[in-house]
Amino acid sequence: MKILIVVLLAAIPMLMLAGCGEKDPGNTSKPGTPAKLPDEFTSEKEIPSILENELTPEEKSALLQEIMPAGPGNEATPEEKFVQLRKDAEAGDAKAQNGLGVMFYTGEAISKDSSGKILTNDPVTAAAWFHRSAAQGYADAQFNLGLMYANGEGVAKDPAKAVELFQKAAEQGNVDAQNNLGVMYYAGEGVPRDEAKAKEWFKKAAAQGNADAQANLDAMK
């Protein structure tokens, strides 16, 4: 039987770096002899002349797209995105508060202890932001805070409080909260043991495609 699925709902997309593909310009140098490019300055939006003369217009266009993919030129940096997220969170935006909590929990947002030492993650600050968001009825934050109480991370362990928060999120359709609520009922943690209610919540989560809930249902048979 699976116990609590410890998953935080990430609200900040991961940044990905992609390398540019390279095209053989049709080098005719002898094998083993490196081709020497002429000294020239090429901006990030230009193609070196030695390549430009060898390419068709279509190939030039394709190569330029690899060198400088199309996109907004004023896209915010990760730091700017974090500053804006914190600004929105401090202004009371529940989604931003939950997202900020996730960043502090995972260590994406840097925190320091009282001595100035950098922390790898900060569950206490994370829980504080989840509290603010959950108090506004934001389901993802209720689920995340429920996990904190269930595992005793950033807050004192309190299975009953975890059940209360999972219940609120589950009733809003949060599939992971539904599965975890089923686990709490099955195990009798924070709530009297009740297999019928456990099965009820597992079925609701499984109906939404949750594989863990389906596995829990199968394990109960």
UniProtKB/TrEMBL annotation:
Q: Which Gene3D superfamilies does the record match to this protein?
A: Tetratricopeptide repeat domain (1.25.40.10)
**One Pfam annotation, family name?**
Sel1
Work out whether the entry's keyword set contains Thylakoid. Answer: no
Q: Where is this region: Disordered?
A: 21-40
Give the signal sequence positions. Answer: 1-18
Q: What is this protein called?
A: Sel1 repeat-containing protein
Supply the PROSITE patterns for this chain: PROKAR_LIPOPROTEIN (PS51257)
User: What taxonomic classification does the UniProt entry list for its organism?
Assistant: Bacteria, Pseudomonadati, Pseudomonadota, Betaproteobacteria, Nitrosomonadales
Q: Which UniProt keywords apply?
A: Signal
